[in-house]
Amino acid sequence: MQTMIQSVELYKSFILGTISVEVLKDINLSITKGEFITIMGPSGSGKSTLLYLMGGLDKPTTGKIIINGQDISTLSDQKQSVMRRREVGFVFQFYNLVPNLTVEENIMLPILLDGKKTKNYREKLDEILDIVELSDRKTHTPRELSGGQQQRVAIARALINEPDIILADEPTGNLDSKTTEEVMKLLQRINEEKGKTIVQVSHSLETAKYSNRIINVKDGKVWE
Ligand code: ADP
Ligand code: MG
Where is the ABC transporter domain (predicted)? Predict the structure, then answer.
């Protein structure tokens, strides 16, 4: 089985004024291609920090993150951001859509940022809009959509570059329970049918039940 994400002796500290706060201590994790993982733990325990390290949005203090066989800590900043855009799609709690762009423009953003031609991605866009069931909302702006629809746009944006990995930080944290179920079923479908490796941070067992494995973070350590 192919290892998709691996952390090796991973430590992360933040400097706050004159003190150093050790948030993650010696984290060794291995996530296989096609897994759907939920990271749980108390508020402030380091769940988001771990997720961002896994996606190369932040750098470890010491230790390694290996994505698809590549130790990303050895890459230059530029190569790291290219890797991030190609291999990883991010989804956040508050969607992070650009308010004055339409649904399709928001979804195409990673393509533009990657310096690629959006016209080569029209078919892909239509396929993804179909998956997230927003084909009839292409030209709307985020404020014309419900919370669940906005999160589906964010998921579509995470998929457009065809990354192997989707990282989602409390993707349903701002949604009611009915919409939560819709979004979780969508993520489950993307995991099962598209074979994407998904790591989500979540507070609720309700959403954790859609995943295959739960990783708990507490006092800087993880256990399963
Ligand atoms: P969680 O997602 O589990 O709620 P976080 O990973 O956001 O927790 O944060 C873990 C700890 O690290 C918290 O104490 C937080 O204040 C601290 N922290 C996170 N990011 C930073 C940062 N950029 N600078 C300083 N401290 C940070
Ligand atoms: Mg968090």
Answer: 5-224
Tell which phi-psi region holds residue 94, choosing left (phi > 0), alpha (psi between -120 and 50) or beta. alpha
Contact in structure between 146 and 96 (CB atoms under 8 Å): no
pTM > 0.90: yes
Q: Residues near 102 by Cβ (< 8 Å), separated by ≥ 6?
A: 138, 139, 140, 141
The angle that helices 147-159 and 177-194 make with each other, rounded to 10 degrees, is 20
SS3 of residue 164 by DSSP:
coil
Q: What's the 49 CA to ligand 2 centre distance in angstroms?
A: 7
pLDDT tens by residue, 28-48: 999 999 999 999 999 999 999
Is this complex's ipTM strictly greater than 0.90?
Answer: yes
User: Which residue's CA is minimally distant from atom 23 of ligand 1?
Assistant: 14
Kindly give the distance from the C-alpha atom of residue 48 to the centroid of ligand 1, in angstroms, as a whole number. Answer: 7
